[in-house]
Amino acid sequence: MIFLTCVAVFVRFNRGPGVAVELSAAARVAELKEIVASQQGVPAQALRVLFAGRELQSSASLQVSSHSDVQVVFTWRPPHLVSSSPGVLLSGL
């Protein structure tokens, strides 16, 4: 018999209030992104997950202890605001 341990992490989101999220101890970062994306109504691929000052890759295991704080940053830019030159926003919007 396999027992799954759940961890509760507090997600701080740059577009709104933080929320507590329960995940299995073996959860991947991509699972956290999907949960936050559905709660916030944003695309999961536009989210970055930061923990202890480092960005966590979607394929990585979350590996945080219960009651940890995780920062989720929304980085989506609509295509009409993105330039082919780095650091340049299109004007005239």
From TrEMBL:
| Classification via PROSITE patterns | UBIQUITIN_2
What Gene3D superfamilies would the database entry show?
Phosphatidylinositol 3-kinase Catalytic Subunit, Chain A, domain 1
- Taking every annotated instance into account, which residue ranges of this chain make up the domain Ubiquitin-like? 7-63
**Which Pfam families does the record match to this protein?**
ubiquitin
Its recorded name reads Ubiquitin-like domain-containing protein
